[in-house]
Amino acid sequence: MPNRALAAGIARVLAPAALIGLSLAAGPASADPVRLREGMGGVDDMGATKCDYYAYIHPNGPSGFDQAVLYWFQGYVNARSGKALNAFLAEVPNGNRWTFERIGRHVLDYCTANPDRTVADGVMDLWSRVVSGG
Predict the structure, then answer these.
(1) Burial level of 35, CB count in 10 A (0-12/13-18/19+)?
(2) pTM of the full predicted structure?
(3) Could you count the other beta carbons within 10 Å of the beta carbon of residue 112?
(4) Who contacts 66 (Cβ-Cβ below 8 Å, separation ≥6)?
(5) Which of 77, 86, 85, 84 lies closest to 128 in space, CA to CA?
(6) Which of 14, 20, 123, 21 lies closest to 77 in space, CA to CA?
(7) How far apart are CA 2 and CA 76, in angstroms?
(8) Which of 32, 61, 68, 77 would disulfide-bridge 39, Cβ 3.0–4.6 Å?
(9) What is the pLDDT of residue 47?
(10) More confident residue, 62 or 68
(11) Which CA distances in Å does 7 have to 2, 10, 17, 19, 23?
(12) CA 2, CA 112: separation in Å to the nearest integer?
């Protein structure tokens, strides 16, 4: 009996090791490479992104595109006014109308209507709308 228990213990240790050794000897498993939908990897420079491409990838890209535009707009507002976005919007006419969704929608609509421009142009257009109380 003791030999049987010893053999079972050794088998429990060696069996997984043997399987690992066999799988390493067989080489890496060949799997299809992961393919992301266009835009899912993000873009290199949000401001330099052409509007036609932005409008094309926006519906299929990551949900963070509107967030990225908001961050880009926050930086633009800070550079132009020296204020954080919330403080800036509190001081302009109808600033409370500019929600996260409306900011993202404005830039997407701008890009759809102006495919030859860039996202930066859409943000500058957004700036002019916000400061004019639009």
Answers:
(1) exposed
(2) 0.66
(3) 15
(4) 100, 101, 103, 104, 108
(5) 77
(6) 123
(7) 77
(8) 61
(9) 76
(10) 68
(11) 9, 5, 15, 18, 24
(12) 78
- Confirm if 76 and 119 have CB atoms less than 8 A apart: no
- Token look-up 């996260």 returns 100
The two tokens of residue 6 are 């010893």
* Range list of β-strands (E), the chain: none
Joined together, the tokens standing for residue 117 give 């421009």
Distance of CA 114 to the CA centre of its chain: 23
Tell me the domain boundaries of the chain. Answer: 51-131
- Where do we find the tokens 């399987």? 19
pLDDT tens for each residue of 89-111? 999 999 889 998 899 899 999 99
| Spatial separation of the C-alpha atoms in residues 66 and 110, rounded to whole Å | 13
- Report the candidate in 62, 79, 63, 70 with the shortest Cα–Cα distance to residue 106: 70
